[in-house]
Write a structure and sequence with these properties.
Cytochrome Bc1 Complex, Chain D, domain 2, mainly alpha, 2 domains, 11 helices
Length: 191
Amino acid sequence: MRLPAAALAAAVLFCPPLLAQDAETGGQKAEACAACHGPGGNSAQPLYPSLAGQTARYLYLQLKDFKEGRRKDPQMSPMAQNLTREDMLDLAAYFAAQELRPAGFEADPARVAKGAQKSAETLCTMCHLGGFKGQNEIPRVAGQQHDYIVKQLADFKARRRTNDAGSMTSVAKTLSDEDIEDLAQYLSTLR
C-alpha cells in the first residue's frame, strides 16, 4: 500500500525530531552547555536542570521555544538564538542518550512522603507517567534538581512560564508553596 504524498509530507513536518539526529555531533555541540547543565547534561547547580535522560522531543521543543521567545530565561534565551534546527535536533539526541546521575540533594523523608501523596492527588503520572520519566513533549522530572523543580512550579503557578498549552498552569495554580516544596523533595529523590 502506498502512502499518499500529502500524508508523508505531514508526517515529516509534524515529527521533526525523528529526522537526522546525530548524538555524536550533539555531544560536540554540547560543550558550551556544560557550564550550566554539567558534563553529559548532569547539572551540579541546583537552579539549572539536568538534561541527561530527558526525552529528545521535549528537549528539541524547549530549545525551539527559547529561540522563538515562547519560553524566556536570561541565560538560556540568548544561548538558543543562534541554534539551527539541526543544532537543536543534535543537542536533543545527545542529551536524551545520556544517563541521569543522582543530584545529591538531601531530601526530608516526611516531605518526600507528602510530595508522593500530593503527586497522586493531582494525578501527575497521567502526563509524566509512572516513575516520572516523561514522554514525548512531557519532561522527565524524576531525579531533577530540587531548586529547579521549585522554580518551574512557581513559574507555572505565577504564569511566568506558559509554553505548555496551559496544562501545568492549571495544575500549579492549585498548589500551595508547601505543596511545591513537597513535590520538589519527592521528585528529586526518584531515579
